[in-house]
Amino acid sequence: GQQLNQSPQSMFIQEGEDVSMNCTSSSIFNTWLWYKQDPGEGPVLLIALYKAGELTSNGRLTAQFGITRKDSFLNISASIPSDVGIYFCAGQPNAGNNRKLIWGLGTSLAVNP
Amino acid sequence: GAGVSQTPSNKVTEKGKYVELRCDPISGHTALYWYRQSLGQGPEFLIYFQGTGAADDSGLPNDRFFAVRPEGSVSTLKIQRTERGDSAVYLCASSDGAGAYTGELFFGEGSRLTVL
To answer: If both were cysteines, with which of A25, A92, B13, B77 could B21 make a disulfide (CB 3.0 to 4.6 Å apart)?
Structure first.
């Protein structure tokens, strides 16, 4: 099925560094969501974006809904060991129908203490 | 429990066998979703229930897959004549009424299915 293009595929950083990852789609999306998945767990929602240009923060996390509506990025500032995990972007091209999300392949983050 | 509960957590079966995976959503959540996640992939939508009815089953890969939610709470995903390609983690999620619009889904830990 359709999936989003997410990059980078993996990142290895030092504790305290900032991290940036992004997601692109060939079609316009009306919602962008960022989820985090820890090993053996289900994904957990971090940030949701519903409007083109929207910039939203959640603690050390900041995400933006691209103006073109075809991309989104997630930044993590001052990384800590518990940031380790797989980050997924997810979205929905149909307004008001976030039941059937389309997901990226994930960005695996490793933090070296 | 407070979260979405899925059983079994692990299931190993032989090719051709029948499998049932169970999901107990968060109490009061009207919407329930099944996703499938293969190794190194993001979740892939299978089916969505609003109450007892399957509102969207367009993600079910073929007629070997079927899901029910008879009382609007617990759901069972049923896979007949399992194939090796069915091996994956099957994730269940639930949401309240707003979740279908916000995209805020609450996931369980998943049921890992291995077909030998």
So the answer is: B77
Residue B21, amino acid: L
Mutate to test the interface with B, among A34, A47, A101, A105 (most CBs of B within 10 A): A101
| Residues A62-103: tens digit of each pLDDT | 999 999 999 999 999 999 999 999 999 998 877 655 578 899
Please give the Cα distance from A47 to B30 (Å, whole number). 22
User: Does the distance separating the beta carbons of A43 and B45 come in below 8 Å?
Assistant: no
Q: By the 8 A CB rule, do B42 and A23 touch?
A: no
- Tens of pLDDT, residue by residue over A36-58, are 999 999 999 999 999 999 999 99
Contacts B102 to A, Cβ<8 Å = 48, 50, 98
DSSP B101: H
